[in-house]
Amino acid sequence: MNPLEKLKHELKTVLNLRGASALLQWDQETYMPDGSGAIRSEQIALLDTLSHEHLVGPAVKAPLAELVNLDNGEVTAGLSEDENRLVNEIWRDYHRAAALPKEFVEEYSQITSMAQQVWAQARKENDFAKFAPHLEKIIELKFREIDYLGVKTTPYDTLLDFFEPGMTSADVTRLFDAVKERLVPLVRRIADSGVNTGVELLRKDYDVDRQWEFGVQVLNDMGYDLNLGRQDKSAHPFTTSFHPTDVRITTRLNPNNLLSALSSTIHECGHALYEQGMDKDWFGTPFCDAISYGIHESQSRLWENLVGLSRPFWEHYYPKLQKFFPENLGNVELDAFYRAINTVEPSLIRVDADEATYNLHIMLRFEVEKQVINDKLPVKELPELWNNKMEEYLGIRPDSDANGVMQDVHWSFGGFGYFPTYALGNLYNVPMMNQAREELKGLDDQIARGKFADLREWLRTKVHLVGRRRTAAELIEDITGEKLTAEPFMDYLENKYQAIYQL
Amino acid sequence: MNPLEKLKHELKTVLNLRGASALLQWDQETYMPDGSGAIRSEQIALLDTLSHEHLVGPAVKAPLAELVNLDNGEVTAGLSEDENRLVNEIWRDYHRAAALPKEFVEEYSQITSMAQQVWAQARKENDFAKFAPHLEKIIELKFREIDYLGVKTTPYDTLLDFFEPGMTSADVTRLFDAVKERLVPLVRRIADSGVNTGVELLRKDYDVDRQWEFGVQVLNDMGYDLNLGRQDKSAHPFTTSFHPTDVRITTRLNPNNLLSALSSTIHECGHALYEQGMDKDWFGTPFCDAISYGIHESQSRLWENLVGLSRPFWEHYYPKLQKFFPENLGNVELDAFYRAINTVEPSLIRVDADEATYNLHIMLRFEVEKQVINDKLPVKELPELWNNKMEEYLGIRPDSDANGVMQDVHWSFGGFGYFPTYALGNLYNVPMMNQAREELKGLDDQIARGKFADLREWLRTKVHLVGRRRTAAELIEDITGEKLTAEPFMDYLENKYQAIYQL
Predict the structure, then answer these.
(1) Could you give the ipTM of this predicted complex?
(2) Phi, psi (5° rounding) for residue B75?
């Protein structure tokens, strides 16, 4: 084997260890007995340590050293442009991992695995004090991680770079400011419009088994391959992949919220199509890997919002949904239903937020996280800061920490820097969808007939199969011919809600 | 850490890797999508190779070498009797594993993982030719394994020793001959008795959800801790443990066989109580490990047969079962039901066989396996040999290979030497149960009230917590004061069936 083949072979081992760890985590969230958490944390920590050791050990280092300067990532071998990119990306992963000592990785995995279980319990009991010492430990770990990796402009940028490579806090701030400038007045105009969208329609009794059945029909139509994946229930919906041939999603069912399961099913399916759509011949390498968390979110949110909350989508599905729930929807017109599912309303919980106010939830978290990481805000001050920011951004104050600072799992696994990618996904996907609409003639008509194959294959070619051959910024420019700005997204939101709220 | 503590620590890592592999296998049998088999085989092979490498690598070898002579297992350190035993058993595992090259372990794992999938398909299609080349490969691997491990008396004994340490083919033959001498006439007398036990009662329509619900009630009563375990459905029932705090069972539900799910649930629960009952402070070491496969089967079969097919058991449960299935059982007396579930009848499928003829299925397999391993019988001759032996032992000839030589999964994972332990479990558990009945006054009355705590705790103390401090032969002598013979088992069978069949 030449060094590149050897690298591919060894990286497959790394990914198979990560896949095994991911299955243990999937099981933890779906089927694991309640009392088995302690040993599970140990097992996951062991696998995470082994995959880290393999990535930074001699089996990867030796062939990599034949191809690049290990200190700066400069390619020294005579390779094609594509191979150059591949080796560069491999080096980036290697270099980042090699900066972290084995003991740190093991400690990190064990502490975060336990913290997730504590967080779930503390949230249930609305007991921030129970979670706080774990969060403090995690933040200490993040400071150590930043020390190992080196500060990029600001400490927070070091963490952000893991989730959104190449993007800085300054970039995010610039984009978020541009959103805020138009979004805050839009939300105010909506609130002032006095229009009642009839959202209570969605909060009647909806049999969960029928919700599930309807969701599975949509999954099939979207082209999620259930022979290479499956859907289960979990407290928090997620997508996980062990290989492009085993990509699983979860959803949650709420008998008094028709949109919750359906949105999460379509959202996770968007993620899953990305994972199933990757080039499995490159499994283990950056060419069979997501560009960034933001690009991953662009896929889930494109399907969830731009497709799943669109009028054409419901032209096809609403008559079917009415048959599932004739008692609640039989006498409700499509237009009324479409208005109800597109209600804009400030609310406490991010994952239940509408397409517009959602981004304010993210901006709040971005601000809070920067204070924690850059300014070392004490953990005990978090609830108060959170509640104040909620009032500032959304005009409402949480009734509890469970519905405030403790609502999200992310910090319990150390995911500082993750949140901004959710809003970036919204910014990425609108220009993508605009371009798809130009290139695929009659796209909205197809959607209105429940036909998604063209869109899915377009995304597969333009995004899924690209892997990390391109950065997020390059990808957007490749697809649209233009650099990323907030304008397409805000144009989309304003157009949509001007119509719905008659602004 | 002293060498013994170091050993315990490193062995825990080995067991956690095996636990992760076991979860991947559990998932493969329960929830894995159909199309994900290839990558799963790779992942399992990787974990199996890593756990093997860790067991035979320097982390275990170095502290072990401080305590024993690695060549012959002689303890060189000054240890207590208990520690001596522990180190001896650790050495036995180490020595056996160290004889196998890493490449062999990897190849073995990959080939058997794929072969299990092929077997399932081939059995479904009744296509022995499809499975044959895989079986040939596996048998070649077994020959290589025997070469690595060294022949014990006969090649087959080398394999048997893994499943039933310390027991030889000669021991098994002696025991099986003693069983056969009394069992064959017993089965004949039963057939000649002309008694109709009304077995067709069990083959009516029994709603599978209710079967499940009834089974769960029995699981709870038996003391299976569902906070540290769970039951799922799979094609073939099994028990798997990742740690005493995560022990899972599966069952299968047949709408036209009332006994199938219930028997398998009780059987697997017996295994699970053994695993949950072990001393988790010794997790990773032989003191938190089953003595042998035969002793494991003694636990499952004690509950399945000696308890679950007994009259006292049904005195408690039959009125409950009648409430679950009033249309089928409402007018059937307990005695009639008891006779029906204790029908003795030669049949093709081992796992559906009754308590008496079951042992003939095992003897047949023991004979066939010895011919394959000791006499190198060609794979293509297996179906004919199987069918001839079925006629000889049970007086019936399989209608297909699916219901003949291909019915069991064991050979597809290389489990030659496994089958005899099933019948040994029967021989072990009768003297155990006799002793329990002497020591626990009123045991049958307790069972007749659905109270199993005394029996379970007695087994926990006498068997589960012992771990590998004792061999199977020592354990039986400890418990009963006598060496193992076939007599208690045959006395039990004859007494039971003389009453039922009025012989």
Answers:
(1) 0.94
(2) -75, 125
